[in-house]
UniProtKB/TrEMBL annotation:
This is SH3 domain-containing protein. InterPro entries: SH3-like_bac-type. Residues 90-125 are annotated as: Disordered. Residues 103-125 have a biased composition (Basic and acidic residues). It holds the Pfam family SH3_3. Residues 39-85 form the SH3b domain.
Length: 125
């Protein structure tokens, strides 16, 4: 009887300490798929809100745990509800980043044009 108890405890300890949680060392990139997503200090719907993400924002999740994704905000561990996220593969994420860079360049050029036209004196009829 005593040996069965020891074996049972050993199996329990093995399961408790050696079965990894779902996650990746380098993280997985996701995109926010809802209007707003609260970044929380704990994996709890009532946890302290530390930030707010908008639809289309990108977030790296390092671990999924019971519907919550572990990430980092300002160097501190933070959590987001993963049902508000869409997983991006590497090609999609590089396309997203390239599109963002192109969009930023276009906006910068448009703003520069606007500033130049504002500085030009108005022509008189």
């Amino acid at each position: 009887m005593r040996s069965k108890l020891i074996i049972g405890l050993a199996v329990f300890a093995f399961l408790l300490f050696f079965i990894p949680k779902v996650g990746a060392a380098s993280g997985q990139l996701y995109q926010v798929d809802s209007e707003k997503l609260m970044v929380r200090a704990s994996a709890d719907p009532q946890g302290e809100i530390v930030a707010e993400l908008q639809q289309g924002d990108l977030v790296t999740v390092f671990q999924n745990d019971f519907g919550w994704g572990r990430t980092f905000y300002n160097g501190q561990e933070a959590w987001v509800a993963v049902h508000h996220l869409v997983k991006l593969d590497e090609q999609e994420s590089s396309d997203e980043q390239e599109a963002q860079v192109n969009n930023d360049e276009r906006n910068s050029k448009e703003n520069e044009k606007k500033r130049k036209t504002e500085k030009e004196p108005a022509e008189k009829n």
